Amino acid sequence: MRASPTRIILQFLFYAGFAAGIGYFSFNPPYQLLAPEQALIKLSFSHAGDHKQECRRLSPDEIASLAPNMRRQMQCSRERVALLLEIIVNNKLLYRDVLPPSGLAKDGASTIYQTFPVKSGEFHITARLRDSRRKDGFDYEHTETVKLMPYQNFVIDFRADAGGFRFL
């Protein structure tokens, strides 16, 4: 069975119109994430806090009462502490939150991803994190003065093995 010329032309016109529509909507309406004078501060990391309770040494009687494949010297809880995070920009608190640990047993890492659009310019940024059982103060703190250009993405990352906060 052979297609008629009319059908081929109509099919071509339909596909051309469809392609033109895709081409138009890929550029219009124009999308702009930030205003022309703005920059973006991104806070993104995942970190596990200390264990919620101290590990304790088992007595010889307690070790002997365990099955042979379960015997261990120390007993530690799986649950971890929630992280306390603060971001201060130009001596004003921009963000403060308590980040709970993930997982059913609350033994996973705490994760955050937040964005803060700001007017471009120079900023004095301080990042603080508490990941231990202490009641006050912070375990990690980093302060830096940065100049953000329009449309710039500025990332605040955290790596405990690299010394704490990294400003990228």
Please give a structural write-up:
The protein has helices at residues 5-25, 60-65, and strands spanning 38-47, 56-57, 74-75, 83-89, 92-99, 110-119, 121-130, 140-148, 153-159, 164-167. With 168 residues, the protein is α+β, with helices and mostly antiparallel strands. The chain has a domain at 38-52 and 81-167: Immunoglobulin-like. Strands 6-1-9-10 form a four-stranded mixed β-sheet, with no helix packed on it. Strands 5-4-7-8 form a four-stranded antiparallel β-sheet, with no helix packed on it. A two-stranded antiparallel ribbon has the order 2-3. The longest helix is centred in the first third of the chain and has 21 residues, at 5-25.
- Sheet-strand content, in percent, reads 35-45%
CATH class of the domain at 38-52 and 81-167: Mainly Beta
The outline comes out as: flat
Task: Strand order, main sheet: write it out.
Answer: 6-1-9-10
**Quaternary form:** single chain
Main β-sheet description: 4 strands, mixed
Low-pLDDT regions: none
Q: From the alpha carbons, calculate the radius of gyration and give it in angstroms.
A: 28 Å
| Residue share in helix | 10-25%
Question: Within the CATH hierarchy, at the fold level, what is the topology of the domain at 38-52 and 81-167?
Answer: Immunoglobulin-like
Q: Can you count the beta strands?
A: 10
Order of helices and strands: HEEHEEEEEEEE
Mean pLDDT: 91
Distance between the ends: 64 Å
Our count of helices gives 2
**Could you say which structural class the secondary elements and strand pairing correspond to?**
alpha+beta
